[in-house]
Write the structure tokens for this entry.
Amino acid sequence: MITPKIFLEWLRYAIGRVGPGYFGFVERVYCYELYHFLRVAMYGYERLHGPIQNVYLHSEFVKVVITDEEARRYGVFPLGNRRSPDFMLHEPNTTDHQIAAMEVKATPDLSYAEFVDDIEKLSELRRSYRYGLVIFHCINSDLGRIQQHVTRAQQEGTALDPDVLIIAKPESYLPIQEVYLGELL
């Protein structure tokens, strides 16, 4: 069975292989290359362990709002809005195997509003649909920028989910920076 820990291994592999030519461009360009290397990692896993069953890597997949009745049937909470994270590793059309959801930001001037919106989206997916791992991944920005936004959120009384994993890659040649949001609060 694929776990959040396995997905995180694949993600670290993929981030480490995206070349410098994909930094400094718009988010979609980076995400295409990241998706490619995630699939490469998944293929390598399948060669060693056999086919991955019932779990798919989707990008920009919309989790639609479900009715209260459907939520009770699945044992989850309905989402407040349509939610479309950049990447999801999950089993579609069910709440089984909700492994990971991830938002990606590529802008060096990551805005406070973008940051808070993505954290709220990930938090809602984790709480309402029980995703095992939710990740905010940013490139071209470092943890210092994230800390500025966290500090502002605290000053404004905005609650941030401590269980969101932050993965930053400020430059292609720098190592990955990884921390749970709770460590920055």
